Amino acid sequence: MLDFLAFAVSTADIVAGIRIALAAIILICTGFIIFVVMKQSGNSDGTEAFTGGSKPEDTESYYSRNPGARSEARLKVWTYICAGILVLCSIALVIMSAVIR
């Protein structure tokens, strides 16, 4: 019935495959987080500490800022999702390394 699984696959091979998959997911998430964070604009340009003023964009109307705010919000959500996946995969990899030797 399962002739294609006739070769013996050991538990160590399966664990090694899972570890490789988790490491690959971690690397992909790390690269994606770096890309998304670099794509986001900062909240300030750092000159408020010297001048005490606000940025000119703060005086714009709601409707002129709305499209940019939506895309920034989407980037922030993707950062949180990818960071959560990164944390979960890292914890799983550490647990697998500690438990299965």
Describe this structure in words.
The protein is an all-alpha fold and 101 residues long. It has a domain at 62-101. Helices cover 70% and strands 0% of the residues. The protein is built from three helices and no strands. It has helices spanning 11-39, 48-51, 62-99. The two termini are 33 Å apart.
What's this model, at a glance?
With 101 residues, this protein is mostly helical. It has helices spanning 11-39, 48-51, 62-99. It has a domain at 62-101.
Descriptive key words:
mainly alpha; 101 residues; 3 helices
Mean pLDDT value: 78
The number of helical segments is 3
Rg calc: 23 Å
Task: Give the fraction of residues assigned to helices.
Answer: over 70%
Structural class: mainly alpha
Shape: elongated
> What is the distance, rounded to the nearest whole angstrom, between the alpha carbons of the first and last residues?
33 Å
Order of helices and strands: HHH
Secondary structure tally: strands: 0
Q: How can the largest sheet be summarized?
A: none
Strand content: under 5%
Residue windows where pLDDT falls under 50 for at least 5 positions: none
Tell me the layout of helices and strands.
Layout: H1 11-39, H2 48-51, H3 62-99
Helix pairs in contact: 1-3
